[in-house]
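Marked as duplicate of an earlier ticket. Keeping the data here for the record.
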Amino acid sequence: MKFTKLTSQQAQIKPFATSAVNFIGAFIFFISCLCMFSVMDGEFPLVPWAAISTLGFCCTFANYKIKIDKETKNIIIRAKSIYVIKADSIAFADIRGIVVDEKLFGKRDYRLYLKLVNEDRYILINKGYKNSLEKVANELSSFINKPIYKTYEC
């Protein structure tokens, strides 16, 4: 995870895992296209190779980004590949605090979510290490002036 201040009014959180997914997707796409068009002599059906190459193509452009905008007072969450998979916006006024929580059955698995005013939770990062999520939570908290709750210290 990396918290980056773009300007004094904007910041973003971007996980590192998307780079690995992009690289693996490009590799799968390249190998499957190579097998489809040049190496294969009709010994394996075309449909599975087309499905595998489509999966690789979609993974090549996978992206997950959390943008924080002080001007509009919103946190914008976007997950996309070739097309938008998820696009949400949460106003600062709806956020009660930022929570770093230990997963119930996962050892050394933590998650970062927003605790909303109506007692709902909105998960920003579902899996990560304690230190990296605490660092991101501290930077996010100081950027939007909301408190941090650590449920594993209770």
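See parent ticket for discussion. The CA atoms of residues 22 and 90 lie 27 Å apart.
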